[in-house]
Amino acid sequence: MQTWLNTSAAPQKIGVLLFDGFSNHCLANTMEPMRAANTLSGKALYDWTFLSLDGTAVASSSQLPVAPHGRLSDFTGDMLVVMPSYGFLGHAGWRTQNALRAAAKRFDTVCGMDTGSWLMAEAGLLEGHRATIHWEELTSFAERFPDVNAERERFVIDGTRVTCSGAMAAFDLVMFLIGRDFGQALALEVAQLFMTRESARSHEGRATPAGRVVNRALAVMQGHLEEPLALPEVARAAGVTQKTLSVRMLSELGATPATVYRRLRLNLARKLVVDTDMSVAEIALRCGYQNPAAMTRAFKVEFDKTPQTLRAPE
């Protein structure tokens, strides 16, 4: 069976450094796609820890208090996400600079969300790098840090330095990372969960022609989960040949149309198992399986659990 993503690796350890005045919106758009990726894959792809400089509680711009898991100096990981948002200039002193410089040696990648780029630049972590920041600060950022190549982009990935321009762009960035690291098929599932097609956007934010074809085919598949269409019919509805659809889905999603279609049906089955008290037989019919045993076998192959096991209390 063709796999959609690499689930054998250890979870990516993400440290999220919060400051007083951080944006709830930015935090949610960063963490919820990761949480969804874990849920939909059935694997711990991401393991995150909330941090502050000294381990004490911080409050968001709307005064939502967060008690971090610990202080920055005690943690290492794959990526440090720096999230000051509002009032960032008040956090840009020597204490923060020293802490970020030290953390950059313990985390493989440092990512500045929203105005986090400014704190990274003050710490000297963006010298000679391409970077972006919230559009309201871009001109000041470019003037203050002439050794940084400031760009007006939603997000910029330059080696081990990642920067993002705001809360909405944070979602785009995390979706891009999910697709890059764990496969476009999983990114597609996460996008569907949030009722968006952001996973079809490229790094520059433009949908490719192949993306439009794949999206048309996905829409057809989604509309025919209970009574699945033959793949030639799906391709015809998408306006291409079956061979063209296969080539484009393999390129865009890393999976064949048959694999994608089956996964969509089984995702619905999993949702119905978890969220309803429908019988397995009824769920099978809702997902295009005439034989409940056939659905159970396919379910077990995809999710390593039978519907009954998934539904059973821990």
From TrEMBL:
Family annotation (InterPro entries): Class_I_gatase-like (IPR029062), Homeodomain-like_sf (IPR009057), HTH_AraC (IPR018060), INH-QAR (IPR052158)
Domain HTH araC/xylS-type: start-end pairs: 215-313
Domain of life: Bacteria
The keyword Transcription regulation is assigned to this record: yes
Keywords annotated in UniProt: Transcription, Transcription regulation
Transcription regulation among keywords: yes
SMART domains listed in its UniProt record: HTH_ARAC
Pfam annotation, one family: HTH_18
Protein's UniProt name: Transcriptional regulator, AraC family with amidase-like domain
Species of provenance: Shimia sagamensis
Origin organism lineage: Bacteria, Pseudomonadati, Pseudomonadota, Alphaproteobacteria, Rhodobacterales
